[in-house]
Amino acid sequence: AQSVAQPEDQVNVAEGNPLTVKCTYSVSGNPYLFWYVQYPNRGLQFLLKYITGDNLVKGSYGFEAEFNKSQTSFHLKKPSALVSDSALYFCAVSPPGNTGKLIFGQGTTLQVKP
Amino acid sequence: KAGVTQTPRYLIKTRGQQVTLSCSPISGHRSVSWYQQTPGQGLQFLFEYFSETQRNKGNFPGRFSGRQFSNSRSEMNVSTLELGDSALYLCASTPAPESYEQYFGPGTRLTVT
């Protein structure tokens, strides 16, 4: 079965420190991979994607993600966390040939403390 | 460009009733996908429409249906509402036909009592 796993329900980090939010996937073929962020009572906001090419992709607000095919992972990273980064983060995968469908992980709450 | 808009933003219905939710995609986007978000099940794909045709469907009962109009606006309908249908319903659009990033609306919060 196709799935996405975010092993941490919550990640706590101090402002100014680097952060990592983990994601692994189980999808056959070469999937497209995405990260989204959700603020309270808001829809999902696109952060970045991996389609093909360089394994390190850069996105909005200083976020980046590293694709690792052998480990089927797509971890989200940021060198220096801000309090305003506190939100709910979702990893998602679009299976090959599965039009318009995103499979989401359960989400990870990021808490950045001053 | 204006973002994805969804109406209404909040809705309260009674069990057994039916409801229709509306979604207007970003101008020029022709594909619309719908998702249900609940605390227990997370984000789940409902269906996707492109050029007024349903191209993909998730694992939801037939009470959940949708359609897309020639201007790419989409509606989803839930008949015979159950308490478990209470959720945030999110609509997303993408230029298509490729499944690249989707742009989400703010959602419709449906409460079934």
Blueprint of the fold:
The complex is a heterodimer of chains A (114) and B (113).
Chain A: E1 3-5, E2 10-14, E3 19-21, E4 24-26, E5 32-38, E6 44-50, E7 56-58, E8 64-68, E9 73-78, E10 87-94, E11 103-104, E12 108-113
Chain B: E1 5-7, E2 10-13, E3 19-24, E4 31-38, E5 42-50, E6 53-57, E7 64-68, E8 74-78, E9 87-94, E10 103-104, E11 108-112
Parallel strand pairs in B: 2-11
Antiparallel strand pairs in B: 1-3, 3-8, 4-5, 4-9, 5-6, 7-8, 9-10, 9-11
**What is the β-strand count of chain A?**
12
The largest contact between protein chains, plus residue counts on each side, is: A-B, 24 and 29 residues
Category from helices, strands and their pairing of chain B? mainly beta
How large is the radius of gyration of chain B?
Answer: 13 Å
From the N-terminal CA to the C-terminal CA of chain B, the straight-line distance is: 37 Å
Helix-and-strand structural type of chain A:
mainly beta
Beta strands of chain B, count: 11
Oligomeric form: heterodimer
**Total helical elements of chain B:** 0
- Report the portion of residues of chain A in β strands: over 45%
**In which range does the helix fraction of chain B lie?**
under 10%
Poorly predicted runs of chain B? none
CA-to-CA gap between the ends of chain A? 41 Å
The string of secondary-structure elements of chain B, in order, is EEEEEEEEEEE
Radius of gyration of chain A: 13 Å
Rounded mean pLDDT score of chain A: 93
What key attributes describe this structure?
heterodimer, A: 114 residues, mainly beta, six-stranded mixed beta sheet, four-stranded antiparallel beta sheet, B: 113 residues, seven-stranded mixed beta sheet, 11 strands, 0% helix, 53% strand
